[in-house]
């Protein structure tokens, strides 16, 4: 069931969005060469506890996961692009790291993701390729948000994202995408990263969704790592992922997880 939120409920969702944004920024600042992924998870866990928030990940066990996730933040490195399970790995210069984080604050959920390069890239060529990939997900996210206007359709968001990806030369996997957000992390409607404008669920004031373009450098095919969670490119190429939770209002979209 798709629920529409009142203006008051959307205001009540703002603290969750702010906390998600602040936590992602704090974890990003801590993600330096030599830092272990488990340390980043521990930092996010501590911030959740201090805030009195509730992790959406730690007990999360959907059909595609081998077991409950058991951690509070996704840390996808290099050829990993989604659902990266934190493990005993020390970051090195040039790693492309994606952080994906979702929590509930006062019963309302927000979900957001960012990708960035850790430390210094090993070469100008590698730095340029990573910058292009990351920036394309960011521009696609901006385009998707701009398309999320009342009276439009989910397909308008999807088409806007796909147009950015194709212009940059990337192909698109639609196995995972955006989703409704509210009292739980994942709900309807599904918001794929490719689609036809003017099709799909109508965008109405009160609809709260996560929009999350993610692309791989030279493929659109993925496989599940032996850890049962982390999704990696089949050819070893790098991935990037950008995500915001937004609320659609009569005046247009509000980004609840906006970062300073």
Automatic annotation (TrEMBL):
Its cofactor is Co(2+); Zn(2+); Mn(2+); Fe(2+). Residues 11-250 form the Peptidase M24 domain. The lineage of its organism: Bacteria, Bacillati, Actinomycetota, Actinomycetes, Micrococcales. This is Methionine aminopeptidase. Belongs to the peptidase M24A family. Methionine aminopeptidase type 1 subfamily. Binds 2 divalent metal cations per subunit. Has a high-affinity and a low affinity metal-binding site. The true nature of the physiological cofactor is under debate. The enzyme is active with cobalt, zinc, manganese or divalent iron ions. Most likely, methionine aminopeptidases function as mononuclear Fe(2+)-metalloproteases under physiological conditions, and the catalytically relevant metal-binding site has been assigned to the histidine-containing high-affinity site. Its EC number is 3.4.11.18. The keyword Protease applies. Keywords: Aminopeptidase, Hydrolase, Metal-binding, Protease. Substrate binds at residues 83, 186. Monomer. Pfam families: Peptidase_M24. It comes from the Bacteria. Transmembrane segments: none annotated. The keyword Kinase does not apply. It is an enzyme of class 3 (hydrolase). A divalent metal cation 2 binds at residues 111, 179, 212, 243. The gene is map. Removes the N-terminal methionine from nascent proteins. The N-terminal methionine is often cleaved when the second residue in the primary sequence is small and uncharged (Met-Ala-, Cys, Gly, Pro, Ser, Thr, or Val). Requires deformylation of the N(alpha)-formylated initiator methionine before it can be hydrolyzed.
């Amino acid at each position: 069931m798709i629920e529409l939120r009142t203006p008051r409920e959307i205001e009540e969702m703002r603290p969750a969005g702010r906390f998600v944004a602040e936590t992602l920024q704090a974890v990003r600042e801590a993600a330096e060469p030599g830092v272990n992924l488990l340390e980043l998870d521990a930092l996010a866990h501590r911030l959740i506890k201090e805030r009195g928030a509730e992790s959406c990940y730690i007990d999360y066990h959907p059909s595609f996961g081998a077991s409950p996730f058991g951690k509070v933040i996704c840390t996808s490195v290099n050829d990993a692009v989604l659902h990266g399970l934190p493990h005993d790995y020390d970051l090195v210069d040039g790693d492309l790291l994606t952080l994906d984080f979702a929590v509930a604050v006062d019963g309302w959920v927000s979900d957001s993701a960012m990708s960035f390069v850790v430390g210094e890239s090993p070469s100008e060529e590698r730095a340029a390729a990573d910058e292009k990939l990351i920036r394309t997900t960011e521009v696609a996210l901006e385009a998707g948000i701009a398309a999320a206007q009342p009276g439009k359709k989910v397909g308008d968001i999807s088409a806007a994202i796909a147009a950015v990806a194709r212009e940059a030369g990337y192909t698109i996997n639609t196995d995972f995408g955006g989703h409704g957000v509210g009292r739980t992390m994942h709900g309807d409607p599904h918001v794929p990263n490719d689609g036809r404008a003017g099709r799909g669920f109508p965008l109405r004031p009160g609809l709260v969704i996560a929009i999350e373009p993610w692309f791989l450098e030279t493929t659109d095919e993925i496989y599940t790592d032996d850890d049962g969670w982390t999704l990696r490119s089949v050819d070893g190429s790098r991935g990037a992922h950008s995500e915001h939770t937004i609320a659609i209002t009569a005046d247009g979209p509000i980004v609840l997880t906006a970062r300073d």
